[in-house]
Amino acid sequence: MNGVGYYEDDAFFDACDRAGILLWQDFTFACMPYPDDDPAFRVEVAAEAREVVRRLRHHPALAVWCGCNESIWLNSHGKDPYTLGGIHLFGEILPAACRQLDPVRPYWPCSPFGGEEPNSEQAGNCHWWFPFFMNPEIDRRIRHEVVDECRARFVSEYGIIGPPPEASVREYLPPEDFSRSSTAFHIHTNTFGGNTVEEGIRYHYVDPEGLSLPEFLHYGQLFQAVMHGGAMESLRFRKGDADAECWGALIWSYNDCWGEMGWSVIDHYLRRKASYYWLRRACKPVKVIVRPRAGHLVTRVINDTLQTYQANISHGWFRLDGAERRLTEQAVMIPANGMVEIARAPIPSDLSPREWLYGAILTGDNLPPDQTSWLLAPYRELTVPEPAVTLTNGPQGLQIVSPVFCHGVRLVDGEEELRADNYLNLLPGIPQLIATKSPGIRAELLR
Questions:
Q1: Pairing state between β 356-364 and 309-319
Q2: In the 8-state DSSP scheme, what is residue 168?
Q3: Of 178, 161, 173, residue with least CA distance to 259
Q4: Each residue of 141-157: pLDDT tens digit?
Q5: Distance from C-alpha of 142 to C-alpha of 268, rounded to nearest angstrom
Q6: Residues 393 and 377 in one domain
Q7: CB 363 within 8 A of CB 371
Q8: Are 175 and 313 members of one domain?
Q9: How far, rounded to the nearest angstrom, does the alpha carbon of residue 267 sit from its chain's CA centroid?
């Protein structure tokens, strides 16, 4: 948890203990200077820190204490760090409480911190906002390939904005305000991202000006999903890179404090956005990933488990209409807590970016199947035939397959079942199996 508003109750920490979720725990200081020259204030902070550490130190889920969120970074530009308001809190009072009451856990002064400046990519942890989603160049904010430039070893904050499902918007907007032009809609829109969602929709899908609100919400969700999945895959892809391995990443954010178009992957009403499913797939313990490197598409398998696997990989080129494949198959050993590079494929000059994609399929005994795809052009520029998805219910779940490439296939049944997967990309002729109990499920296809 990288949060700064309050300390969660015991039930939250108990649940994380049971699930094996590790927590980055901030003290409740963020983004501003603090009057640590006031003796009374320092006494109150010390008392609060001791109480919090005593309450939480027995939880195995707790991984690290952090003094603050962004206070040192945002207030240190051009200043002597020892004159910053709060530096005595983060550098003396809080670490003293941790050393005294919980000496076995590490303490970190601030997120971000380390290097010649507090948000360096060369040391410590990094909030990777300005090179990516806070960049003034809109073209960088709408393409997940930008994340391939990141060299931070631990990215402790980054995010992508996107709208919630239509059902949630109808909960916080009355019918008369259910419009992209209504004041209420804009009040419930986190403007930190500017017009990024609109431009993301334009680049990947359609011109946004003529979209109805339901259409805007659908395309906006898919934009956030593509970005979140691609960004996380880019960071995980670096596992094993000697000069730039990434050891971890924390997204901003998991859920919302109210109904809004915002940064979460689960909205205020606990509905899962499309980005939840893309991020979940990107975080599979054993994951096949394709990323561009030096004019090639590089296929790697990342294994974050402590088990070695024998697997089969099929990788290569698919025509979007399913008429042709150029695949290579090979058996590989995937080392425990390791990475194996499968192939580096140049992009052939005879393949039209509008008609071909690169894909990889991973299978193996006792290994959940996985697949990935890399588009050579934005979805709106692809020449994709009319989709024809087939759904087949069986004892192990729902099999879904299409003879042609399909992007963002949404499974619906009129209810809000918490499915194992959704908003799928389907490689031509390659089935996927989805765990579901719904007998009336159907597929909604992107048009």
A1: antiparallel
A2: H
A3: 173
A4: 999 999 999 999 999 99
A5: 24
A6: no
A7: no
A8: no
A9: 14
Cα torsion angle, 296, 301, 302, 308, sign: negative
Return the amino acid letter for 386.
Answer: E
Query: In this predicted model, what pLDDT tens digit does every residue of 301-346 receive, in sequence order?
Result: 999 999 999 999 999 999 999 999 999 999 999 999 999 999 999 9
User: In terms of domains, do 85 and 203 share one?
Assistant: no
As a residue count, the chain comes to: 447
DSSP state, residue 249: E
Q: Is the previous residue joined to 156 through a cis bond, with omega within 30 degrees of 0?
A: no
Residue 401 contacts by C-beta under 8 Å, 6 or more apart in sequence? 389, 390, 426, 429, 430, 431, 432
**pLDDT at residue 440, as a whole number:** 77
Q: What is the pTM of this model?
A: 0.94
Q: How far apart are CA 425 and CA 226, in angstroms?
A: 10
**Which phi and psi angles does 137 have, rounded to 5°?**
-85, 110
Nearest to 418 by CA among 280, 288, 284, 282: 280
> Which two tokens mark 67?
């003094």
- In degrees and rounded to multiples of 5, residue 304 shows phi and psi of -100, 10
The secondary structure of 73-108 as a DSSP string is: HHH-TTS-GGGSTTHHIIIIIHHHHHHHH-TTS-EE
CB 345 within 8 A of CB 318: no
Interatomic CA distance for residues 90 and 29, integer angstroms: 9
Q: Are residues 248 and 204 in the same domain?
A: yes
Which residues constitute the domain of residue 10? 1-111
The alpha carbon dihedral of 303, 304, 309, 314 has a sign of: negative
Q: Which of 404, 401, 402, 400 is nearest to 385 (CA)?
A: 404
Tell me how many degrees the CA angle 282-283-287 measures, rounded to the nearest 5: 70
Residues with Cβ within 8 Å of residue 247, at least 6 apart in sequence: 153, 154
Around 310, how many Cα atoms within 13 Å sit in the side-chain half-sphere? Answer: 2
In angstroms, the Cα distances linking 154 to 110, 112, 287, 336, 396 are 13, 10, 19, 21, 38
* pLDDT 10s digits, 153-209: 999 999 999 999 999 999 999 999 999 999 999 999 987 667 999 999 999 999 999
CA distance 148 to 231: 8
Judgement on whether residues 278 and 295 belong to the same structural domain of the protein: no
Specify whether the CB–CB gap between 273 and 162 falls below 8 A: yes
Range in 18-32, 165-179, 386-400 with the lowest mean pLDDT:
386-400
Tokens of residue 117, six digits = 């400046």
Q: For residue 340, list its beta bridge partners.
A: 301
Residue 369 CA to residue 211 CA, distance in Å, equals 36
Report angle CA 88, 93, 95 to the nearest 5 degrees: 110
- 23 and 98 both lie in a single domain: yes
